[in-house]
Amino acid sequence: EVVLTQSPGTLSLSPGERATLSCRASQTVTDSLAWYQQKPGQAPRLLIHDASNRATGIPARFSGSGSGADFTLTISSLEPEDFAIYYCQQYYTRPLTFGGGTKVEI
Amino acid sequence: EVQLVESGGDLVQPGGSLRLSCAASGFIFTNFAMSWVRQAPGKGLEWVSSINAGAGSPHLADSVKGRFTISRDNSRDTVFLQMNSLRGEDTAIYYCAQALSTRGYNLYWGQGTLVTVSS
Description:
Shape of chain B: globular
Number of strands of chain A: 11
Largest interface: A-B, 23 and 20 residues
Radius of gyration of chain B: 13 Å
Largest sheet of chain A: 7 strands, mixed
Number of helices of chain A: 0
Strand content of chain A: over 45%
Strand content of chain B: over 45%
Distance between the termini of chain B: 40 Å
Structural class of chain A: mainly beta
Distance between the termini of chain A: 34 Å
Oligomer: heterodimer
Structural class of chain B: mainly beta
């Protein structure tokens, strides 16, 4: 099973600042990695797929990079609605696995 | 607009059974695989099961293998999760999600249905 480790666990930032979230895989997942955003009481929402492709309707301030085993989600300038928990997921091999999440808080 | 509406969540005793449903609309159901992902209270996301568009190739997480079954009715645009021999650790919100394949990311998610296993 591929283990995904997200860091940091919590990121404390202010609106307008840049957020950099990390996701590290225990083995290569090539570019089969997605990022999701989840707000309290809501379902997750797809942000990025295939490591760097924004999903439909996702603002350009969200970008993904990386391949192999090291990935990054960057939010270039935080908006108030971006404070949430972010999860990475690999779909290179079964079982599909998620990281433990990074909470971005004000 | 893609809509996924889960139902069937309830309070059930350990060892009991439950059947979750997910009604899909707003897209061509037979073009997509479907998945179930769960989230225990205050915890992260865990993939549970996936089924391909043609209702074949079901996949299950080891934690539920032998107890849960995924199926779909393409005539009703609905996917199901039959859960037997339920345990306390199955307590979670269960989300239904759309995917391009059984080994793919989830494009859209439902709002989830809560399953509580407790005596």
